[in-house]
Amino acid sequence: MKKVLFGLLILASGKTVAQDMGQILAGSTADANKYLNAYFEPFAKGEIMNIGRGWTSTAKTHKLLGLDITVNAQMGLVPSGAEAFTFNKADYSTFSLTSGASSATLPTFMGGKTQQNITVNTTVNGKNVKYTFNSPIGVGDDIKNAIGQAAVPLPVIQVGLGLIKHTDVKLRYFPKTDFGGTKVGVFGLAVQHEFTNYLPFLGKAPFLHLSGLVGYNSIDASYDLTGKGVSGSNQRAELSLSGLTVQAIASAKLAFLEFYTSLGYTSGKCDANMKGTYNFNYTDASSGATVSGSVTDPVSLNYKNSGVSNTWGVRANLLFIKLFADYTFANYNGVGLGASFSFR
């Protein structure tokens, strides 16, 4: 459970990635933020689009006090071009490739396991010092081995309730809970209103339904980094995601199968931080002596993503159990799979 949650909210990297990632902080704060911004960008942008998905698998709303409990998994598919980024020495003041090359292709968090040795040349306590580290690997290959595609995962649990005038309210909520060092909290709220009854011509096709949805979702997570890489104190990674989605939905029910599609727009942001104190032992460039230094609260990353999305899916209605699968076209395409218990 911990691995799933942490991978999904910055943190499925495990100890190896966390350790390599922490070494980046030995350089200047500006360089560390520049590198990590490129490293985490595909994850952050994919997750922003994920939180706008999975709200519904039908345009038909419940009757009064109708209820559904839905569990689904959203997978934001990472474009192949986002599995790596180009490291250019000229973009950094304290980082350089130990090999002497001027540039290299390095994996993002959602990329592979290739590595380069990077040398830090900086000043600590008035002395010119050096430090070397291996560039962090990605988790993309592990995910490919599991599902065949690099993807950003997001599990979703929600409850829907039918109110008056063909309106459903949907709630996603999970109190911030500690899973052995990984703390995760979720809140989401959406309103879906069906317009079918306002369109008399649909009375001739009672299997067709049209509705609109507005939803907001936020996720807050933190992970205890202490003892998982660089020495220090109060070390943790923090992640805050939020997004708003607006969708127009249509569905058609044929026997026990229901086909649905939606056209919408999602906009959101992701803030990722590394807090605490991180200690490093550098090598004096002239004498070879050890020079100690530290940084505090070194990383603050901010991402935004938005765009139009178009989802196509199919649902099997098996009495009170609904099984569904869909595919979303967007700047990060997505696959969704889920099941729900639905009454009225």
The radius of gyration computed from the alpha-carbon positions, rounded to a whole number of angstroms, is: 23 Å
Label the structural class: mainly beta
Estimate nothing, just give the exact number of structural domains. Answer: 1
Strand order, sheet with most strands? 1-7-8-9-10-11-12-14-15-16
Strand content: over 45%
Name the features:
344 residues, mainly beta, Lipocalin, 10-stranded antiparallel barrel, two-stranded antiparallel sheet, 16 strands, 56% strand, disordered N terminus
Give a quick rundown of the structure.
The chain has 344 residues and is mostly beta strands. The protein has four helices and 16 strands. The longest helix has 22 residues, at 29-50.
